[in-house]
Amino acid sequence: MGTTSTMKSIKQFNPKAYQRQSFWRAAWKAISRKPGRLVGFIIIVIFTLMAIVGPYLFPKELPIDPNAIYAPLSWKYPLGTDFEGTSNLALIITGARYVLLAAALGALFTVVFGTVLGLVAGYFLGWSDSVIMRITDFFLTVPSFPLLVVLSTVWNFGHPLAMGFILGITGWGGMARAVRSQTLSLRERGFIEAARGLGLSPFYILFREILPNVSSYIGMNLLTSITGCIYAEVGLFFLGVVPFHVNNWGVMLNMAVFSAGAMSSPSALPYLLSPLLALLILTLGIVLFLDAVDEMFNPRLREDA
Amino acid sequence: MKDFLIRLVWRIFSGILMVLAVASLTFFLVRMMPGDPVNAQYNQLIMQGMTPVQAENQVKVMYGFIPKEPVGQQFVNYILNLLHFDFGQSISYEGVSVSHIIVSAAPWTLVLVFTGLIASFLIGVLAGVIAAIKRSSPFGTSLTVSGSLLHGIPQFVMGLLLAYLFTTLWPLLPFGAPYDSSIDPGFNWPFISSLFSHAVLPVFTYALSSYGGWLLTMKSSVITVLGDDFILASEIRGLKASTRVGYIAHNAILPLFTLFTLSIGFMFGGSVFIENIFDYPGLGNLLLKSIDTRDYPLMSGAFLLITIAVILSNIITDFLYSIVDPRIRR
Amino acid sequence: MIEIKNLEKYFTIKAKFSDRKIVHAVRRASLTIPDGGAVSLIGESGCGKTTIGRMLCGMETPSEGTIIINGQDISKLRRGARARLLQKIQLIHQDPYQALNPTHTIQQMMSATLKKMARQKKKGAEWISQRTNELLKLVGLDPSTILFKYPHMLSGGQKQRVIIARALTVEPEMLVADEVVSMIDVSLRLGILKLLRSLREKFNISILFITHDIASARYLGSNTELYVVYKGMIIEKGLTEQVIRQPHHPYTQALLSAMPILKGIEKPGKDRFVLTSQFRQSEEEQVGCLFADRCPFSQPICSEKRPELISQGNSTDAYACFFPEIRDVAAVSVDH
Amino acid sequence: MTNASSANMENVIEEKNQDMAISARNINVVYSTPTGQIPAVRNVDIDLPKGSITGIIGESGSGKSTLIMAIMNAVTKPGKIESGSVILDGKEDMLKLSTEQQRKIRGKKIGFVFQAAQNSLNPLRRVGQQILDLGRSHDVKDLRALIKYAKELLMRLGLDADRVLASYQHELSGGMRQRVGIMFALVLNADIVFLDESTTALDMLSQASVLEIIRELQKEKKLTIALVSHDIGVIADLSERIEIFYAGEIVEEGKTDDVLANPQHPYTRGLIRAIPKISGDIDSAEPLKGASPDYKTYQQPGCLFYDRCPIRTDECLKKRPDLTHIGKSHKVACFRVGVHD
């Protein structure tokens, strides 16, 4: 092994630091190994930056320009303008925060609920398993998007946290079931039993022994849930069942199709296409990046790189 | 056989429990609505000049319960009505029963989605097999890439793009409405061809957006089967290529079989976006309209039907699978 | 000292949705393992030998009978005390490829339990790394090359040694070694067996050795006792070499006969016979001798009454057979 | 047995079995891996005399299974046969036949019994249906006779034939599956049979009875058998000739009792000393030093056994020894023949 000599020199310092460091290094190695992954990574970083700093780049009330309603693409308006003459690019950038934050929170809720419940059900079995799985079945059976539509009548989606929470609630079922079945199959492997025999605590076994083994699955699910959440929330706004509190991509789509009639008047087309483009590029970025996740979390794949 | 019956009864029992749970969810949802719509309706009817008794009866017909009753009593009445397949009366379509509205909307959704489902399944599975077998060739790779891209695009984006391309950019197909309103509905050629041409885009949207999923699943299923020992064994025993392909296809399609029958259940609620974009009078649109007009009885009814469809298909899938796969059979 | 008395285990198998099947996995098994002693359990898969080992480690609860560790009946102890006592008995798994967490380095595995031990002993981080090195060296591994490796970078033999080293971190008094060499390359098996033997001799750790291969049981030391298990029942026991050379029970003889002969080195015993009938989990409970249906020497009485495990003369040898007869079935060396 | 008489016997056997069922020459198989090209099988010559049982011994990863796959011309990716010839019955070269001709030989002329742990049957079809599939693929006219023969074989193998034919794979136990595998290898009257670790996962008693059946059938049908295993016991018990495989090469070959009684390669000696035995002195047993060959072993220029060898010299590091005769049919690849450790 070519790394033996470096291992030895690092060992004299701090083995823990070495391991922590090695994860990030290996992660970067996995990402930079293929150009597609790198492109995906860069797209995700750009969108994240957009969500974080985007709203600070523009005044709180975006300027309107009555002389440039549905303006074509130009240097001043790279993506054209909307029905008030507001720059579409500015709308996309400022609208990213709600969309991405809600999606990230939704995915986080999904993954945290799903993982913890799946781990607990799969490891402890017995009554906790039965209870959790019955609830999971319920959430898996009720069609989630129609449920979201129905819930929109009582729930206020104004804050991304509220949106994210509901997206998480309706979405964790599949994750819990998958984590449970993985936990069950890991239980069959000797190392869980060995850990129990060695007197290690259930907490240690759940989160230090089992969790790292499902981490690449969780990582991938986090990313796919983000895309799923983005579609669901943008879809809700697009359908117009959720009141428009803040500007975001879904609101743009709704206005473009149902108010501006972008389908029949070509001048309004950029207004429709710019949020579509944003969605497509972000999807592409996540799909490309997904490829690297397995390699980042799996030491077996990591070493070969 | 005895096992089979016990399991069937158990599955149906738990299915009914599930339906009741969803029914109570919608019941309490309506009760939680801002401004309590049931009470509001009652008050409005009084204002319109009804006597309290008349108003009560009217409200009961609509919602299945009377607002003045205690909540427990209301709930029991509501559930009892459901057990008689009485979903109440619509508010926006005055005097029409919810079940009637749902029954007339369901065929639109069914035809639309079922056609799209079948088409995407057949093409996706076929493409998946090719993508798996030719996975190291450029053709196979491009099939896979097409699958992941189409899989990644959300349905409403797909719908809008297709609508833009084929109705605005190249105006080949009509946009909106299930048929040309200038034609008299009936069993005549212009009407049927109008129906057909209006259905092309929605069906296509559904098919394209689910094609990718079928392709990717079938591809990974075929690759898994190709790695199985018995496929190597069948080669070493010198079985004919056609027999071997049959073995692979049979084993690879089994997991997809479950997904397919499950999809049939999700069909009822699976086309909200498409029906909305193309203005199709199906169940999804019905659900949206009921929310728009705050027609709560209709909303609960539509949602309940969508859920019942899923539960039913779950049960059917379970039993069909145990017939198709000898390993599950006892 | 560890004592097992009249241990019974029933498993309920949910064969179908409606009916259940009860399997009698262990039947009135009794055995004693002194400190630093060794016992081998021999039998085919599904004979219940693994279940006995697992009950001893606390991984399964006996349906009946008692397990006495250092004079304490574990079923009479409170949960915490029982767990502490059972930790003195460590299970070494059959499959080294499954028994190590693929996401942990060897160092992480060793320190997980050593941290706990250090807390009990009020020792620091120094002690943990020192102890890690000590134990890895003890099992014949070089800590400097192996410490930061992941399991998939080790060979089967190295993995099995890591597993043994990890079991030693909790300072056990006994190891239950369940088919520990069956997944390891033939050329490396002896190394593991010798390691187990040296743990006995140097550290007085007793061994319960579970295997289907009688030959490997010979390498644990001369005073190892051999217990032959069939359908959950101990049917013959005695000192290893003695059982091999003078087997009384026809089943033991069948097992010995089934050992392949190394042509050119060995020649078969003169009474060798091959059993062709298959092992079947019988639907209903047998009344007579459990082996009667396959035994080439069975008499009518064998299927009517069940023979008990009875000691003959001296205290160590015992067999459960109505018609015991020593047969010369084991292979012997060819002299050159 | 004295040396003289054994040499005599050999002569007789050699003359009788002049014609080879399979004669493979100069087989090279290379695996492409991320770490480079690994020669999994290197310059291997192997003969399977008609009507004989040959055992091939090797540790995991020694390339022994790859070798028999190469003989069948069925090496799977990322492996590739670089060169070699496999002559069947002194006639055609398996590696040069058309795909269709190869297919007809596989299964019909050469039967293959898989590892016991492998599931060699289609899980969705009954055993009987799969026998019919096999028959149709090999243009068997009388399918009814085929089923009848299959039943006969299954009965010989100690199974309830009707029940087995109506069963799916998951309804059979490990030992039963293995017997069904043997039936599949023989039902088309193959005269060459390969057994790849076919008894490894079985219990002692099952293994013994399966070996006994193989022995009987071999005698009766004059089968040519190649037996591949890591378990020297099974091979020593069954085979007449033995090939010791190490890191992709044959290091010693000869008559089984000859090689075992008088091993010449240090690996063979070490292996024999390292196996737990039921007979003999336990204290003389010793584990083999070092680790099983890995990808680095394959890439060294000298003798592949160098790093584990107790009698190595510097010469061994520079050149690789060829397989050379040291007796009538006993060959060894070692520079230090005669030196004891």
Describe this structure in words.
Chain A has a single domain, classed as MetI-like fold (Orthogonal Bundle), CATH 1.10.3720.10. Helix content of chain A is 76%, strand content 0%. Chain A has twelve helices and no strands. The model of chain B has no long low-confidence stretch (mean pLDDT 82). By secondary structure, chain C is of the alpha/beta class. Chain C has two domains: 239 residues, Rossmann fold, CATH 3.40.50; 72 residues, no CATH class. In chain C, the strands form three sheets. Chain C has an eight-stranded mixed sheet, sandwiched between helices. In chain C, strands 2-1-4-5 form a four-stranded antiparallel sheet, covered by helices on one side. The mean pLDDT of chain C is 87. Chain A: This is Peptide ABC transporter permease. Chain A: Keywords: Cell membrane, Membrane, Peptide transport, Protein transport, Transmembrane, Transmembrane helix, Transport. Chain A: InterPro entries: BP-dependent_transpt_permease (IPR050366), MetI-like (IPR000515), MetI-like_sf (IPR035906), OppC_N (IPR025966). Chain A: It comes from Sporolactobacillus laevolacticus DSM 442.
Question: Taking Cα atoms only, what radius of gyration of chain C do you get, to the nearest Å?
Answer: 21 Å
Distance between the termini of chain C: 44 Å
CATH architecture of chain D: 3-Layer(aba) Sandwich
Strand content of chain D: 15-25%
Write a short abstract of this structure.
Chain A: Keywords: Cell membrane, Membrane, Peptide transport, Protein transport, Transmembrane, Transmembrane helix, Transport. The complex is a heterotetramer of chains A (about 300), B (about 325), C (about 325) and D (about 350). By secondary structure, chain A is mainly alpha-helical.
